[in-house]
Specification:
Blueprint (H helix, E strand, L loop, with lengths): L5 H9 L7 E6 L6 H8 L6 E4 L6 H14 L11 H14 L5 E6 L11 H12 L6 E7 L2 H9 L11 E4 L5 H10 L6 H11 L3 H5 L7 H10 L8 H9 L4 H11 L5 E2 H8 L5 H12 L3 E4 L10 E4 L2 H13 L6 H5 L3 H16 L2 H8 L6 E8 L11 E9 L3 E8 L9 H18 L4 E8 L14 E4 L6
Parallel strand pairs: 1-4, 1-5, 2-3, 3-4, 11-12, 12-13
Antiparallel strand pairs: 6-8, 7-8, 9-10, 10-11
Helix pairs in contact: 3-4, 4-5, 7-8, 8-15, 8-17, 12-13, 15-17
Length: 474
């Protein structure tokens, strides 16, 4: 059963209706459900399908490709010595097929592109010289190595330039889809627990598939992440190795960002990591952004060259907050960590990231999803000689074209949030400082996003907009 993914399924099915040959690239992070989506959409019926072999060299890759050709009907052929030969054999198989549309699915294609294999050149020749000259070929390629798909296929400036006719980036589930998936597996999670699980795992379907019925969320997290045999105890290294061929600079960047809640500018990342300011660094930063591990944004009023990079991947944040230091030494580490200062600090940060990943739901809850808007952060640091002045940091501002700015405060708590007099005046001070320093003429509206709302009281009435977590599921 496929949860969500309706738009992606429609785009895949539309490939079969095309009057020309189609070359589609489906990509997304490891474990997000790319292969499952493609196979389920087409009911496992392909004219030819093949999966690349992880870590294998060219001879072994070609050997496995030959096995796939034989299993799917090609007879009496000499073993290919090059990828050009292998694709000629694929042409022979497809030409002989009675299928009205020849549906070809090559999974984990990045693994086939081994050093000095000339795989890309052979793929170019297969598509340009043969497949694109027909009207009955549908080639779907897939891979977790997002950077490879983007750089070698989508942004190819050689023989495959503009040859990708459809690209589908499969994102992790949102909260609503995670709830639907949990219900389909009879996990009996409350919405609060769905949010807490999302704070740990993000919306990666495979991670959610490992949650066991009958066990509490804490027991599941302990088992999956903190036991030596836990299915996700070694996921961090596997994740980054699968996405990026040389993940060392990527990991150095996210490690630096993991300890800087509000994000870092490019120069600060270089200083924190000690990496050289070169093409490798620039590519790693871009690839992390393309893969949705990092968001790039501007502080309101700053130019794009002063962009800030912020780590927003929940699993990575969870890893650095708890897993890196524990190292599997305590199988009940998570249960023992709950309500500790480290846990409380992490919940605030993780819930903030959940909200940043659900901006469209926040806009809808505020009633202006159809209004053009942009998302920012903002900070003010007073001059050093300014007496009694304090800096101001606002993590989420929504700047709207209808002359309104929502100044958002995000608070995670198990029950209702108690807005004290001190907290209210801190918020009001931020609002006034923002107005004074930016000279905005727009209406600046205080907005609080909480898990369960604000406790009724005098100061609760001073907040113009409230959003509760239930609205993030809509």
């Amino acid at each position: 059963m496929i949860v969500g993914r309706k738009a992606e399924q429609k785009r895949l099915k539309d490939l079969l209706k095309s009057k020309q040959s189609e070359f589609a690239a489906v990509y997304g992070r490891r474990r997000v459900g790319k292969t499952f989506l493609i196979r389920e959409t087409f009911k496992y019926k392909f004219t030819f399908q093949h999966t690349g072999l992880s870590g294998a060299g060219m001879p072994e890759q070609l050997s496995e490709f030959c096995k796939s050709l034989k299993e799917q009907g090609l007879e009496r052929f000499a073993a290919p010595r090059t990828w050009r030969d292998a694709f000629h054999l694929l042409e022979k198989l497809l030409a002989a097929s009675p299928d009205k549309k020849k549906l070809v699915f090559i999974d984990e294609m990045p693994w086939l592109d081994t050093p000095k294999s000339n795989f890309i050149r052979a793929l170019e020749h297969f598509w340009n010289a043969w497949a694109s000259a027909r009207t009955d070929i549908v080639l779907i390629v897939c891979g977790s190595a997002t950077s490879w798909i983007i750089n070698k296929l989508i942004n190819n400036y050689g023989g495959l330039h503009n040859r990708i006719t459809k690209q589908i980036y499969l994102k992790p589930f949102n909260l609503k889809e995670c709830e639907e998936y949990s219900k389909s597996r009879k996990l009996a999670l409350t919405r609060q627990q769905v949010v807490e699980a999302y704070m740990v795992m993000g919306g990666v379907p495979y991670y959610w598939s490992l949650l066991e019925q009958g066990a509490s969320l804490s027991e599941n997290i302990d088992r999956l992440f903190f036991t030596s045999s836990g299915e996700l105890s070694n996921e961090f290294g596997a994740l980054y190795r699968s996405l990026f061929r040389n993940p060392e600079p990527h990991i150095a960047i996210i490690k630096a960002l993991s300890s800087n809640k509000s994000g870092l500018a490019r120069d600060s990342i270089l200083k924190e990591t000690g990496l050289d300011d070169n093409a490798t660094f620039a590519r790693a930063l871009t690839e992390l952004e393309q893969s949705d591990f990092v968001r790039k944004f501007n502080y309101m009023g700053n130019k794009s060259k002063n962009a800030v990079y912020q780590l927003i991947d929940n699993f990575t944040l969870f890893y650095y907050a708890f897993m890196e230091a524990n190292g599997g030494s305590n199988p009940h580490f998570w249960s023992a960590s709950i309500n500790t200062p480290t846990y409380n600090a992490w919940t605030g940060l993780a819930f903030e990231r959940v909200c940043l990943l659900h901006i469209e739901q926040i806009k809808r809850a505020l009633g202006f999803n159809a209004v053009i808007s942009s998302v920012h952060s903002w900070f003010y640091r007073p001059p050093k000689n300014t007496k009694d002045a304090q800096g101001v940091q606002i993590d989420l501002l929504i700047n709207r074209s209808d002359d309104v700015i929502n100044l958002c405060e995000i608070k995670y708590c198990k029950g209702k949030y108690r807005l004290t007099e001190d907290e209210f005046y801190k918020l009001e001070n931020r609002r006034q400082t923002f107005i004074e320093q930016t000279h905005t003429r727009k209406s600046v509206v205080l907005t609080i996003i909480t898990t369960n709302g604000i406790l009724p009281g005098n100061f609760a009435n001073e907040i113009q907009n409230q959003i509760v977590v239930n609205q993030l599921f809509e």
